[in-house]
Amino acid sequence: GSETWLAGMTMNNLGEVGRERGEYAKAEALFNQALAILEKTGGPDDPSVAQVLSNLGMLYFNEGKLSRAEPPLQRAVAIREKALSPDHPDLAQAINNLAWVHAEGGDFGRAEPLLKRALAIQEKAFGPEHRDVGKYISNLGSLYYLQGRLAEAEPALRRALAIQEKARGTIHAD
């Protein structure tokens, strides 16, 4: 019941602690345990399963294991597409994570439409000037930069910086 679900989510959170500490093997084991529990208690399409899959995918991403990162991140997107509204920020996050796996692998053609979709979701959810929107614009600008598309990168990055400065106050380099 709910205690088992809570144990699964607690294992997920411990996995996140392990990932942050660079204890990747320990984190992977915890994520896989959490996944087994949550799939059993909530079913394979439960949003909590998507959260663990996303965390597992980002663990592999952090390790540079891009081919292992993609399947759990794709599944997290699919679950969130079914379980959440089409403009839910958690869906945008899942799409963003998948996009960066493609970008790191040099597949910019797959990454760009995903980043644009994630940005559109964030803008609809929060409005064009929200700091989270600024992060997603920065991600898109960074993708353009990685491709050498400087004429597109600069305005995106400047817009992201303006949003971030408005949200936090002016940022100085000194």
Write up what this structure looks like.
With 174 residues, the chain is mostly helical. 82% of the residues lie in helices and 0% in strands. The protein is built from eight helices and no strands. Helix 1 runs antiparallel to helix 2. The radius of gyration is 17 Å and the shape is globular. The protein starts with a helix and ends in a 6-residue tail after the last helix.
Question: What's the SSE pattern?
Answer: HHHHHHHH
Strand content: under 5%
Q: State the helicity in percent bands.
A: over 70%
* Poorly predicted spans: none
Which structural class do the helices and strands define?
mainly alpha
User: How many beta strands in the DSSP annotation?
Assistant: 0
Shape: globular
- Mind summarizing the main beta sheet? none
pLDDT average, as an integer? 94
Question: What is the CA-atom radius of gyration, in angstroms?
Answer: 17 Å
Distance between the termini: 53 Å
What is the count of DSSP helices, taking H or I runs of 4+ residues? 8
Spell out the key features of this protein.
single chain, 174 residues, mainly alpha, 8 helices, globular
Detail the topology: elements first, then pairings.
Blueprint: H1 2-20, H2 24-42, H3 47-62, H4 66-83, H5 89-104, H6 108-126, H7 131-146, H8 150-168
Helix pairs in contact: 1-2, 1-3, 2-3, 3-4, 3-5, 4-5, 5-6, 6-7, 7-8
Concise description?
Helix content is 82%, strand content 0%. It is built from eight helices and no strands.
